[in-house]
Every structure is written in C-alpha cells, then in structure tokens.
Design a protein that fits this description.
alpha/beta, eight-stranded mixed sheet, three-stranded antiparallel sheet, 13 strands, binds S-adenosylmethionine, Arsenite_MeTrfase-like, Arsenosugar biosynthesis arsenite methyltransferase ArsM
C-alpha cells in the first residue's frame, strides 16, 4: 500500500471518529462578531496553524481550500466572502467531505449569516486538482502538503500555482523540521500521515514554492509544534518540529531570484535625510522598512549605516523587496 493510500485510510478514520489530538494548533478559537465555530469543527481541527487572514480577502476573492478536514477554516473563509460558491473545498476522502457537509449544516444553525451554499465541496486530489487554470484568487491548505514526499509535494505546489490567477496567493500552514530524520521515521506511513515525519527544513519548503514559479514568499508565523522523543518514537535523538504559516504569491519571478520576506527590517541611521540604493529602495532616516532577505543582504553591503534586524518570522505585508 502506498503512503497516499495509508493517508486516505487515516483521514477516513478521522472523519468517522473525530480525533482531537490529531495535528493540533496553539491558535485560539476565533472570537469574531457573529461567528460561532461548532464544537465538532473544533474537535476536527486537524491543522497546525491558521491560513485565514483578512488581508488576503479583499475584493470578493474566489477561494480554494484543499484538504477540508472538519471544515473550520472554510467556515472562517466564508465569514469574509459570504457568497454562494465563494469557497470551494476539495478533498480526496469521501467520508471527510460527508463529515464537513454535516458540520456546515450545524454551522448554519449557529450562524445566522452562514449558508451551506457558500461552500462547494468537490471530490478531488491535491495532486490533480479538479479546478480550472487561473480561476482562483486565494488557495489554501493546512497540514496536508507536509505529508507528501518530495515529488508529490512539487506536483501539489504546481497544481496550486496552475489554478491561481496571476498575483493570486497560496496560503499555507505546515510543520517543518530543521533536523535530519532517520529512515525509519521517514518511511513510517502512519507517522507521515499524522503530520509527524514528513516535514522538511524551511529552506526546502520555500524552494518547492519558488521552483514552481512563485516570485514572492512571506513567512507569517513560526511556532513550536511537536517533539519526537526516543521514549515514544523510533529515534535516538529528540527531533524538534515547528509549524509555519506561509504565503506564496504568484508574482513574476524577479530576474535576481525570489523575494522571501522573513520579517527583516532595515533602518538607515546615517546623517542624510534618506538613503536611496537606486534600486527602488528609499530608507528615510531612522524609519523602519520591511525588506525581503535579498534586499536586506544588498542593503547591508551598500551602506554600513543601516541596521538590519534578524528574521522575526512574523511578516504581514508592506515594505520592499
Ligand atoms: C491533516 S488534515 C487537515 C485538515 C484541515 N486542513 C484542517 O486544518 O483541519 C488533511 C486533510 O487532507 C485530506 N487529504 C489527504 N490526502 C489528500 C489529497 N491527496 N488530496 C486532497 N485532500 C487530501 C484529508 O482527508 C484531510 O481532510
């Protein structure tokens, strides 16, 4: 049986019997005016962060959500879009589609503004999306892509790239791991499906996105996720896993490579009113400017009176690349 079949089986189980400890997020339950998230959706929250940000949801975006789980994030996206078919949910597991459909009915009872018709549920595979090219403004996935092995991850990312409109954005939350993992962990299909042994270093994750063509990357959050300890898992050393929230924007690829924002800021503290690098970046004296890592490195070289902050892993827009 391939690891993809093992994954489908695991999520069939998780659809039929909610598993509160499967995946997990430290994000608080959303408290927004008029929004009630049904208990069953919270119990079936199989994500590891949030992919829903108001900043992505201007101008009535057409939203695609791949790997629906209990439907919580689709409800959250609908909170902003509030239109028939505004959100399309794709999942390969029939039982998960059925479970989320039931959960949307409960959500309808708890939320006067919500109608199940706001969400179109479609059976389909992340590796071959049943979605037209360039038809989506915001595509999302939470805690699914980390399960995929390298070749499948590249396929899944390329599919998201294909369906997005130019300048559309792919928003994601996934575990990452900076340590090497042994083969026993890597080849354990169940641990992989549980989002525990498929995660890769952040730079490899970003590379999969930029290799697909995404020209701008934003790291929006980086948090503690799990440890795999020798007393519970087949490992001789403690393996530390984090989760990230990340957006990949379908901007054209700059000639000098992708713009990756990790939360760095540049501040010019020289004697002039401003510093102009003649490459599109003007730094007013003693005012912070969010910059991508590429620009941070170039500015540090160009002028020794610029302070460059460390990556905060908390970038939420603005600045220059
Ligand atoms: C870890 S759960 C995450 C669920 C949801 N995103 C959340 O945050 O609660 C993974 C989801 O992806 C679905 N899934 C697994 N393999 C898939 C595939 N190849 N294509 C689409 N969905 C898939 C599972 O059925 C499940 O709903």
């Amino acid at each position: 049986m391939s690891y993809l079949n093992a994954t489908n089986d695991l999520y069939k189980e998780a659809a039929l019997t909610p598993d509160v400890g499967l995946c997990c997020t430290t994000n608080p339950v959303w408290q927004f005016p008029g929004l009630s998230i049904p208990k069953i959706m919270q119990e079936m929250n199989y994500g590891c962060g949030s992919t829903v940000s108001a900043q992505d949801l201007v101008n009535n975006p057409k939203v695609l959500y791949v790997g629906v789980g209990g439907g919580m994030e689709l409800l959250q996206f609908s909170y902003f879009s509030r239109q028939k078919g505004g959100v399309t949910g794709v999942d390969v597991v029939d039982e998960m589609l059925e479970a989320s459909k039931k959960n949307f009915k409960i959500a309808e009872e708890e939320n006067t503004w919500f109608k199940s018709e706001f969400v179109d549920l479609v059976k389909g595979d992340a590796l071959n999306l049943p979605v037209a090219s360039e038809s989506i403004d915001v595509a999302a996935q939470n805690c699914l892509f980390n399960i995929f092995k390298a070749e499948d991850l590249q396929k899944a990312v390329s599919e998201m790239y294909r369906v997005l409109k130019p300048h559309g954005r792919l928003v994601m939350s996934d575990p990452i791991c900076e340590q090497p993992m042994n083969d026993e962990l890597r080849n354990d299909d169940r641990l992989r499906a549980l989002c525990l042994s498929g995660s890769i270093p952040m730079k490899d994750y970003i590379k999969a996105l930029t290799d697909a063509g995404f020209g701008t990357i934003e790291i929006r959050a980086r948090k503690s996720y799990r440890v795999l300890s020798p007393n519970h898992y087949p490992t001789e050393e403690l393996v530390y896993i984090e989760s990230i929230e990340i957006a990949a924007i379908k901007d054209p690829m700059p000639a000098d490579g992708p713009c990756v924002f990790t939360g760095k800021t540049a501040i010019y503290y020289g004697d002039e009113q401003y510093f102009d690098d003649k490459n599109g970046h003007v730094l007013m004296q003693n005012q912070p400017l969010a910059v991508c890592d590429k620009t941070a490195a170039a500015l540090a070289k160009a002028n020794d009176q610029i302070h460059i902050s460390e990556s905060t892993w908390h970038y939420n827009g603005g600045g220059c690349c």
